[in-house]
């Protein structure tokens, strides 16, 4: 194992090159209480998330004194530690040791719940948020067509119409690589590259988004857990994923519904009225979230799947690129 | 029981170090913005340094006591009066049933002050902490700031209040606050995305020499600094987005300086936990308290670069300072 400290600025505390097919690791200084562990290059590669969550799990299972908590993300883990109890050097050595002993990536089978969420498309809440945006923020936004973002989303991805766009959202499972920014907000990525839509962000960002709104920017899908500003293109609404009052059994242990490594699946498609009744039932405590608690995710099987569907995925990416080139960016 | 007669501008229940272990679900730790004053106030009344107390921002709080307690007020001068008589900051007093403590508004430098009561505020812990986290509407009293008519339960003191009263923090350990339009020196290390990979050495030299104005639109989630045209080390953010301040989302250290486009924002203790902008510096944990006493719209900041080792040493020294053995009998 060759280590090289590369920078006089002191930002990189240690770095290790790629070895045995495992991506290289860079340890970045993040102050006296945090350490950023970064893997590979800055490219969008969902499979990196499996390694990250595998390592994150190992770190937590074998946690040394002084390790407080971790924040896994798509290609990194931010570690919160007590530098009075463990030195940065010892922490780096600990993580390296865990990384060394991580089972081969292709053999990883990670716990991954399947969470089914009902969805209403181009619902009244989303339309209201977009109407406010047009009225108070930007009247000529190219991403707003007929009071929605979904027609624009279809055009941008080379799809026939908003209905085809909606069918793509429902056709793939969404891998929740991380939670954050706001409490319980998932950063979810499409597992089936044949349906991996991409969208640019709002410009300027929206002042108001209702809680429960579903949106996409870049390849990433988010659900807004609380009423907030937002920059994602929005097209749907689902049941609450955050309840600080913990009124439903699904929130008994935590006010946050989702976890890193969950798979989200949007079904069934419902009307505004049906969704409204479901939301009410969540707060009454009678709504039953559909969650497969014991599901696992087999990385090897997924890699084989990716290989199988690659020609179709590549065809879709070409179609997207052609379409996006003809559509104005906000 | 502590009876709130006026909640003031923004008063919240906080404990230290706040809600730990929830960063990966999107919960910032919350807690006191000035943990130095907060912890000393607790030590003065015989509480553990992290016991729940009140954070009073800008002033206006009026409370009445219903039994015998030791109290201490540490932080900014808000002209506190006990039954109409001025009391000193950084000193413990004995109060009895019926006594009324009133805060005026800011009398001089500083922005927040802390009230510790022996026994601590005994609101129910939420997810392991009593700290109020306003963006998530949890903790403290119903996840919100205090209003007239609120009644706060108090815990059982572990030390005789009469014994805890009549002590003071020696003058040498009472910090001086930079006044309006004066400059705070804020210790910080370079962050995970500083030079040379993300910013240029010139960008960082500017960062550590400029007098940054603290924007009026600053609060417990973030402290906005002035806009600056950075050179940047990259042409674009690559897979993270179009702008060179963009990265693939990763965890944010508490106290990081998060550069969003042209604007640096210091992420405070209620700040976002994860996102897609670079962090070029991280405020030393031992210096975080200073943020609590800066006045949005008035204060200036100059970042003083410290090494990781120096930041850790500052932290150890601060722990030794905030200790009962350093108090004086008054």
**Overall pLDDT of chain B:** 96
The end-to-end distance of chain B, rounded to whole angstroms, is 27 Å
Assembly form of the protein? heterodimer
Radius of gyration of chain B: 20 Å
Tally of separate helices of chain A:
7
Low-confidence runs of chain B (pLDDT<50, min 5 residues)? none
| Discrete helix count of chain B | 5
Tally of strands of chain A: 17
Number of DSSP strands of chain B? 21
Q: Tell me the span between the first and last alpha carbons of chain A.
A: 47 Å
Given the C-alpha coordinates, what overall shape of chain B results?
Answer: elongated
Could you give the order of the helices and strands of chain B?
A: EEHEEEEEEEEEHEEHEEEEEEHEHE
Q: In percent terms, what proportion of residues of chain A is strand?
A: 25-35%
Major sheet summary line of chain B: 8 strands, mixed
- Biggest sheet of chain A: strands, sense, closure? 8 strands, mixed
| Alpha-beta classification of chain A | alpha+beta
C-alpha-based Rg of chain A, rounded: 21 Å
| Order of helical and strand elements of chain A | EEEHEEHEEHHHEEEEEEEEHEEH
Secondary-structure content class of chain B: alpha+beta
Descriptive notes:
The complex is a heterodimer of chains A (330) and B (330). Chain A has 330 residues and is of the alpha+beta class. In chain A, 30% of the residues lie in helices and 25% in strands. The N terminus of chain A is likely disordered. The mean pLDDT of chain B is 96. With 330 residues, chain B is α+β, with helices and mostly antiparallel strands. Chains A and B meet through strand 3, strand 4 and strand 5 of A and strand 13, strand 16, strand 19 and helix 5 of B.
């Amino acid at each position: 194992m060759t280590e090289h400290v590369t920078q006089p600025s002191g930002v990189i505390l240690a770095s290790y090159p790629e070895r045995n097919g495992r991506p290289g690791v860079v340890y970045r200084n993040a102050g006296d209480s945090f350490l950023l562990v970064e893997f590979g290059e800055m490219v969008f590669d969902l499979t990196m998330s499996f390694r990250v969550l595998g390592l994150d799990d190992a770190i937590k299972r074998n946690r040394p004194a002084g390790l407080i908590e971790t924040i896994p993300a798509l290609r990194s883990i931010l570690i919160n530690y007590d530098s009075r109890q463990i030195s940065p050097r010892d922490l780096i050595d600990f993580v390296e040791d865990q990384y060394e002993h991580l089972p081969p990536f292709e053999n990883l089978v990670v716990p991954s719940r399947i969470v089914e969420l009902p969805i209403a498309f181009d619902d009244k809440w989303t339309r209201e948020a977009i109407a406010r945006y047009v009225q108070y923020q930007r009247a000529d936004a190219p991403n707003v067509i007929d009071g929605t973002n979904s027609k624009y989303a279809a055009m941008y991805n080379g799809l026939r119409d908003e209905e085809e766009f909606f069918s793509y959202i429902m056709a793939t499972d969404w891998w929740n690589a991380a939670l954050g920014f706001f409490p319980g907000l998932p950063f979810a990525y499409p597992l089936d590259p044949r349906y991996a839509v991409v969208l640019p962000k709002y410009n300027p960002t929206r002042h108001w988004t209702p809680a429960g709104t579903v949106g996409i920017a870049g390849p990433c899908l988010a659900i807004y857990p609380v009423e907030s500003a937002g920059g994602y293109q929005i097209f749907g609404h689902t049941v609450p994923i955050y309840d600080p009052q913990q009124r439903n059994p699904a929130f008994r242990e935590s006010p946050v519904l989702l976890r890193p490594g969950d798979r989200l699946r949007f079904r069934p498609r419902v009307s505004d009225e049906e969704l409204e009744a479901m939301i009410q039932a969540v707060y009454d405590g009678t709504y039953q979230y559909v969650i497969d608690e014991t599901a696992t995710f087999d990385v090897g099987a997924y890699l084989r799947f990716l290989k199988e569907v690659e020609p179709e995925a590549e065809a879709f990416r070409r179609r997207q690129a052609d379409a996006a080139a003809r559509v104005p960016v906000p | 029981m502590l009876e709130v007669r006026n909640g003031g501008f923004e008063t919240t229940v906080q404990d230290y170090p706040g809600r730990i272990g929830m960063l990966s679900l999107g919960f910032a730790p919350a807690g006191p913005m000035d943990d130095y004053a907060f912890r000393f106030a607790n030590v003065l009344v015989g509480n553990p340094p992290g016991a729940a107390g009140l954070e009073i921002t800008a002033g206006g709080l009026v409370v009445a006591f219903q039994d015998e307690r030791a109290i201490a007020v540490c932080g900014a001068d808000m002209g506190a009066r006990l039954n109409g008589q001025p009391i000193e900051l950084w000193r413990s007093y004995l109060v009895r049933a019926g006594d009324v403590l009133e805060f005026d508004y800011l009398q001089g430098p500083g922005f927040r002050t802390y009230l510790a009561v022996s026994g601590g505020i005994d609101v129910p812990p939420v997810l392991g902490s009593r700290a109020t986290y306003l963006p998530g509407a949890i903790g403290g009293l119903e996840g919100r700031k205090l209003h007239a008519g609120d009644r706060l339960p108090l815990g059982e003191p572990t030390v005789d209040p009469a014994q805890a009263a009549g002590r003071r923090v020696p003058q040498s350990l009472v910090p001086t606050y930079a006044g309006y339009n004066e400059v705070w020196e804020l210790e910080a290390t370079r962050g995970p995305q500083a030079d040379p990979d993300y910013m240029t050495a010139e960008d960082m030299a500017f960062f550590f020499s400029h007098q940054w104005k603290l924007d009026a639109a600053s609060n417990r989630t973030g402290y906005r600094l002035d806009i600056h045209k950075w050179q940047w080390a990259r042409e674009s953010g690559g897979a993270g987005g179009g702008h060179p301040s963009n990265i693939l989302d990763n965890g944010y250290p508490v106290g990081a300086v998060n550069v969003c486009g042209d604007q640096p924002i210091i992420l405070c203790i209620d700040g976002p936990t994860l996102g897609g902008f670079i962090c070029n510096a991280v405020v030393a944990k031992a210096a975080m308290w200073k943020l609590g006493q800066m006045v949005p719209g008035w204060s200036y900041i100059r970042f003083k670069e410290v090494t990781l080792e120096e930041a850790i040493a500052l932290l150890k020294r601060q722990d030794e300072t905030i200790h009962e053995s350093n108090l004086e009998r008054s």
